[in-house]
Amino acid sequence: MMIPTLTRINELARKAKAVGLTEMEQAERTRLRQEYLQTFRGSVNDLLLNATIYDPNGDDVTPDKLKQEQASRQNP
């Protein structure tokens, strides 16, 4: 879903610089940007929820808040 959305956002950006956008195209651009950001933020959130952080000594230094969130997702 991200690639077609991003492609269309870029098309609208090029058109906006070249000739401008109609009101419908501006609304579409706004909607697509919101969808893209929601998808992107969800991906980053999922990535962080599956992360474990180690220091150079090999000790787990994952923040407690992240550990709690990971545990709550595993045990609904």
Automatic annotation (TrEMBL):
Subcellular localization(s) per the UniProt record: Cytoplasm
Domain of life: Bacteria
A matching Pfam family: DUF896
Keywords noted in UniProt: Cytoplasm
Gene3D superfamilies xref list: Helix hairpin bin
InterPro entries registered for this protein in UniProt: DUF896
Region Disordered, annotated ranges: 54-76
UniProt main location, coarse: cytoplasm
Gene Ontology CC: cytoplasm
The family this protein is said to belong to: Belongs to the UPF0291 family.
The protein's name in its UniProt record: UPF0291 protein DFQ00_1231
Organism annotation: Paenibacillus barcinonensis
